[in-house]
């Protein structure tokens, strides 16, 4: 595990901290679709992502979801950090976008390392900054982009994090994550297909390369 840690986080952390993470961290492997953190649950550990991608979702009172951002290797989740430090319930759902491998860090170590390691403090601050920018980008997309542009941006992001231009999502799945209706998604996907941007199949979508 130490080697994987070093490969993903050596540009953030010094050797001593990497060794501490290796000692106290719990390796966790999840499959695509697994829920790591549920809305309303208490977060007892913080994830450091080694491989794969995790999507962070919000949910409204009607149960409809909205994709906020993706986490990739070398990332952690600022929303999780906030819940851990504040001992509050989670306001997001974290779900595996692809098969993934994580190291779970106990809450008590987060405060200890913040005092002990400048690199850890910098990592936490940078994580807050990165996730805030990603949420602002999501807000901008909702406020300023037409739905067809949002949809294409979403498909490109899905392809990027999965490193695959074939997207195995139903029209309903996409509608949930964009907080719209399946009818709208199906209509816009057909429009994108006519524009040569995508190729639609029964159970998957092929994103055409520019």
Describe this structure in words.
It is a single chain. With 210 residues, the chain is an alpha+beta fold. 48% of the residues lie in helices and 23% in strands. The protein contains 8 helices and 10 strands. The chain has helices at 2-9, 15-24, 78-86, 107-116, 118-144, 147-162, 171-178, 182-194, and strands at 26-30, 35-37, 45-51, 53-59, 65-72, 93-96, 100-106, 166-167, 198-200, 205-207. Strands 2-6-4-5 form a 4-stranded antiparallel sheet. Strands 1-7-3 form a 3-stranded antiparallel sheet. Strands 8-10-9 form a 3-stranded antiparallel sheet. Strand 9 (198-200) and strand 10 form a beta hairpin. The radius of gyration is 18 Å and the shape is elongated. The model has no long low-confidence stretch (mean pLDDT 89).
Strand content: 15-25%
> What is the general shape?
elongated
List unreliable stretches of 5+ residues.
none
Rg of Cα set? 18 Å
Helices and strands, in N-to-C order? HHEEEEEHEEHHHEHHEE
- Total strand segments: 10
| Strand line-up in the sheet with most strands | 2-6-4-5
* First and last CA, distance: 38 Å
Question: The biggest beta sheet, please?
Answer: 4 strands, antiparallel
Number of helices: 8
Percent helix range: 40-55%
Q: What is the residue-averaged pLDDT?
A: 89
Structural class, by secondary structure, is: alpha+beta
């Amino acid at each position: 595990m130490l080697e994987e840690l070093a490969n993903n986080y050596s540009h953030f952390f010094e050797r001593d901290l990497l060794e501490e993470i290796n000692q106290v961290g719990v390796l966790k492997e999840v499959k695509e679709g697994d829920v790591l953190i549920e809305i309303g649950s208490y977060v007892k550990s913080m994830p450091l992502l080694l491989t794969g991608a995790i999507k962070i979702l919000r949910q409204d009172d009607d149960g409809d979801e909205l994709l906020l951002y993706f986490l990739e290797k070398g990332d952690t989740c600022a929303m999780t950090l906030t819940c851990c430090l504040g001992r509050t319930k989670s306001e997001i759902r974290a779900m595996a976008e692809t098969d993934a491998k994580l190291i779970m860090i106990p809450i008590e170590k987060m405060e200890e390392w913040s005092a002990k390691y400048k690199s850890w403090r910098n990592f936490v601050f940078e994580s807050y900054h990165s996730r805030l920018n990603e949420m602002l980008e999501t807000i901008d997309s909702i406020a300023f982009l037409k739905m067809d542009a949002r949809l294409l941006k979403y498909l490109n992001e899905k392809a990027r994090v999965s490193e695959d231009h074939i997207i195995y999502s139903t029209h309903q799945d996409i509608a949930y994550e964009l907080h719209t209706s399946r009818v709208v998604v199906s209509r816009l996907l057909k429009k994108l297909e006519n524009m040569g941007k995508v190729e639609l199949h029964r159970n998957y979508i092929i994103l055409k390369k520019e």
